[in-house]
Amino acid sequence: MGVTMALFWLTLVISIIGSNAGGEFSVLHTPQSLKFAGSSKTLESLLKEIFSASLGLSVEENSEWNGLSITDPFNTPEAVVEVYIDGVSSLGENAGLKAKNFPLVVDEYEPDTYDAIKHRINQRFTNGGNKLINIRLSEPDDLLSASNAFGEIVPPKVSKQTLQHLKYDGVEEDYQFLYELAVLKALTAKIRSGVISADNVVDFYNLRFRSLHALSDYHGPNSLQTKEAKKLLGNALQELSDAFVKAYDGSVLVTAVTTDVAHTRRAVRAAPEFRAEAPEHDNYTADYAAIFNIILWFGVVFTFTLVAIVYAIMDMDPGRDSIIYRMTNTRMKKDN
Questions:
Q1: Three-state SS string across 59-109, please?
Q2: CA-CA distance, 315 to 74, in Å (whole number)?
């Protein structure tokens, strides 16, 4: 009884988390050896299997998702690019992306897609030489770690451009978004310059855009500022996709993943140049949401589990031969 009740509440909590978190899996470019079709949902936890199958790597978890077909298993793409965008369930139709979109069920808070793909590539290609890039665009240190693949990338200063609703000064969320956007464009420029090219070695790129959810929280998901930000990001993603396609002669799968699972807080790390001039905000760390959700849902699950166990014990029939019955029965039998 107790175990059953505990599993029931645990399932209920997980379903609540899943029902409140949605996303979208967008395919910006598909090589000729792959075909994405239909509009069926997929789980975020299965993205690593989709990418592995696309690259011709072993798949550890079977899936009934029929959105991907491998038309030429002997000519799989040389690279996969995933741009992970926190805080929005979709960029929307006005973003200007030419993409095939699939609804995404967010069933895990921090997906292990990059680590899983990296591990499988290292197991398959023991000689090395693969480009395995994991960059948080808001972190200058990540740009330094990727210098072997792209060369030196100096964290750019936000250049002035025509904006209708976003502001360079006075709103930290706007500035941080424009900073990450400038980093993304700097990477695109590096790729266009020829720093990477097709070499018959499998590569995987994971780029993480983290500031859009803070901007959306601050201005509102339907605000003019958020709509403008999505359009700017959509244009930048299209340029990035075009650059990768040219670099790999079309033999690359370029995708974007949007998820609103982190859209529960307004926390952002400001760019170094802006922090001193920005207005004061709550000083959250980048791990605030993860720690908060872990503590919150552990507390919920633990509480309901404890209640279920107590209820099961209270309803338990100890039987007449149990030690509890014999020690508490006031009319104890005497031995003859």
A1: CCCCCCCCCEEECCCCCCCCEEEEEEEECCCCCCHHHCCCCEEEEEECCCC
A2: 62
User: Whose structure tokens read 């139709």?
Assistant: 93
> Are 232 and 85 spatial neighbours (Cβ–Cβ below 8 Å)?
no
Tens place of pLDDT per residue across the chain (336 aa): 444 444 444 444 444 444 445 899 999 999 999 999 999 999 999 999 999 999 999 888 777 799 999 999 999 999 999 999 988 999 988 788 889 999 999 887 778 899 999 999 999 998 888 999 999 999 988 988 888 889 888 767 776 677 889 988 889 999 999 999 999 999 999 999 999 999 989 999 999 999 999 999 999 999 999 999 999 999 999 999 999 999 999 999 999 999 987 643 333 344 444 443 444 444 445 456 667 778 888 888 889 898 888 888 777 666 555 555 555 555 555 554
Give the closest residue to 268 by CA, choosing from 215, 331, 191. 215
Q: What is the enclosing helix (H) or strand (E) of 312?
A: helix 288-314
- The C-alpha R_g of the chain, in whole angstroms, comes to 25
Identify whether the C-beta of residue 232 lies closer than 8 Å to the C-beta of residue 181.
yes
Structure tokens at 184: 């993304």
The string of DSSP letters for 27-51 reads: EEE--TTEEE-S---EEGGGHHHHH
Cα distance between residue 303 and residue 305, in whole Å: 5
Q: How many helices (H) and strands (E) does the chain have?
A: 11, 9
Enumerate the β-bridge partners of residue 302. Answer: none
Q: What share of the chain is helix, strand, coil (3-state, %, to 5)?
A: 45, 15, 40
